[in-house]
Amino acid sequence: MPVNAIALPKPDAEQQKLGFWPLQIAGWLGYFALYFTAWMGENSTDTVHILAVLAPLVAFGFINTSVLRLGFQRAWSQPPRRMAVYAAAMLFVATIAQGTFYSFIKAVTCTGDDCTMHNMLGYMWYYLSTLYLLLSWSGLYFGIKFSRQAQQQKEAALTAQAMAHEAQLKMLRYQLNPHFLFNTLNAISTLVLDQKQDTANRMVGSLSSFLRYSLDSDPVQRVTLAQEIEALHLYLSIEQIRFGERLQVSIDVDEAARAALVPSLILQPIVENAIKHAVAKREEGGHIEVQARRDGAMLDVHMRDDGPGCPDFDARTNHTGVGLANTRERLRVIYGDKQVFTIDNRMPHGADVHIRLPFEAKEGA
After folding, report:
1. Which of 63, 145, 276, 343 has the most crowded CB, counting CB atoms within 10 A?
2. What tens digit of pLDDT does each residue of 24-51 get?
3. CATH no. of 175-358
């Protein structure tokens, strides 16, 4: 999916309903059990009367708060201040309804002098206790809703970050293909003009094999170092057609390092840069060495050449050219501060590209 088409996850309505109703049912059943045991403790002989008051009250409370929830849902999309005003108004109406119903049930089911309210404080207690109950319910409702919204926003941000991260890696990887392809097609064109059709055909065959590997490999997924070395051989077979004996290559990878996971095509641009500066510009050509070792929890890779080196700039911080800058950025995006990528001049001449990555082996390797 392209970055500009990222769809942020939306809460599933059915999941929200399934989350609300169990809590709603459990909450009112708990309220029923709490008050039933409390009233039974005060008057254990009047079970029928207690149930006659409490059961309708709990049923009405269940319906009342379910309707209140619908009102809260409609107010949820409003600005915060307006939502607070709407919620307070709905809470006031729900409190009046619940308190009035409680007074009605009490009056209908109760007999004797104890059923009559002697002053306004009794009625105030009904409504204030009901307000406290519904205010607690509303606080719990909004607390859960805000918590879920924050979790969804966090998941959406992580999803967007991961997709942006993936898009960046793909861009960096695919940026290498036209760069390499331009150089190779230039060489094939030169061979055709020089009427070296056999050599041009062999280079086209090697190029198709390398591009097939490049297109088949996922830029985000990592490959084993053994697979990366195979891809490097495909690339070098193209370059050795161009340079012949002028290009000398030695590859030394110990067995423990071959299972290490590395970004796909991470070595090719570095070797291409070495060929460009240490081989192509020198009549006698040059030698390129690739060495990989496992060093405890790290993978240690060196790519050395015997060219002129880089005497005029600090190679540790000034990585010029598409290939080296691209490689440095890919490693930074994938590994952060856990990786090392440096270029040093060798004595008496030449360059040494050094890469250190966390050693992670493929499962079952």
Report:
1. 343
2. 898 899 888 888 888 777 666 577 777 8
3. 3.30.565.10
